[in-house]
Amino acid sequence: MDRLWPDPAPDLTLDEAMVSFTLPDHSADRPLVAINMVTSIDGRAQIDGTAEGLGSRADRRLMRLYRAAFDAVGSGAGTLRATGIWLRVGEDLAARRTREGRPPNPIGVVFAGADPVQTDSPWFTGDETRILVVGSGNPVTEVPRGTELLRSPDELPEPRWVLRRLAERGIGSLLLEGGPSLNASFLAEELIDEVYWTVGPHLLGTDALRMIAPIEAGSPFAHEPRRGRLISALRHEDELFLRYRFGRPGSIGP
Length: 254
Prior knowledge:
This protein starts with a strand and ends in a 9-residue tail after the last strand. It is α/β, with parallel strands linked by helices and 254 residues long. The longest helix has 12 residues. Helix content is 20%, strand content 23%.
């Protein structure tokens, strides 16, 4: 692993390169929100409907290191259906979180809206706390033990409403792992604070989904893009691992 920015250094292990990784302070009213995605060089986030094959073993380790820093890890119901999602951090990082006085794994959050939910998915197993967020008309009425069902007053849960509910539960940071439509809903409300982007060394030339889907009502940033600041850049063989930070609306502050 080579650290390209800041403080360039070659020949590091991934864990050495990430040893100083910390999250910025978050406001009291809502959790800090970051998204973690892998894409091809031409910006596609899927091969044959999933992200499998876009990232390497190093990328999968990096994903766990990111997860370990957060209070909660979330994804949309579409990602749950496509991959079964597994949001844990692995034994070594779970032990580290325990030594730090935190639960072994982050809280799992799935955003379902009106979509049906497969309650027999592997996501519903394990000892970690889970929260299933559904819309007002979602047919789900019962969830497996260990899962909290959080029903929105709206047909599609509004991101700010969800973040307020998470803050009430003591959650100070949320890592989103897709899909692109969920990412777009948070971008539309200027609720993305950091982006962790793995660029895999592939060209696809397909119409597969991108990291962030087009915002349905039209993007408020089409003519005045949200501008981020590059915080770090790592290289592993032919992959790039980039971290960007976005200030609160109207600023690019830390």
